[in-house]
Design goal:
With about 120 residues, the chain is an alpha+beta fold. It has a domain of about 70 residues. It contains five helices and two strands; from the N terminus they run H-H-H-H-H-E-E. Helix 3 packs across helix 4. The longest helix has 18 residues.
């Protein structure tokens, strides 16, 4: 990011302050990305209600998606989920009886400062 900071200092400063309100120039809107990720997971849960599905995604997208699913402000994604290591595992169960509400079953490879998300 040092090169980007030299080219776009003000945009990078705003991005670091609040990603949700200030996406990277030319990048995908984080609100749309979070909605896309959450919609995809819900669609898979509906299509395979008793099955297991493997999803491989980028570090930032899974953090934004988890925030979206649990009603956490996207502006807080770096605090709540500070990092997701390469190869990390996050198991989410969607409970059909509860209208496919998500519950995190397991998280491995999540940054040390990570907190268990609470529904708002």
């Amino acid at each position: 990011m040092p090169e980007a900071e030299q080219l776009f200092p003000e945009e990078i400063r705003r991005f670091k302050a609040d990603l949700a309100a200030n996406p990277m120039p030319g990048g995908e809107d984080p609100n749309q990305a979070a909605c896309r990720g959450a919609s995809a997971l819900r669609a898979m849960a509906t299509t395979c209600p008793r099955g297991r599905v493997l999803v491989i995604t980028h570090n930032t997208l899974i953090r934004l998606t988890l925030c979206s699913l649990f009603g956490i402000s996207l502006a807080c994604y770096r605090t709540v989920f500070p990092a997701v290591d390469n190869g990390a595992i996050t198991a989410i169960q969607f409970e059909r009886e509860k209208r496919f509400s998500p519950a995190i079953q397991f998280m491995a490879g999540i940054g040390k400062r990570s907190k268990t998300p609470q529904r708002s």
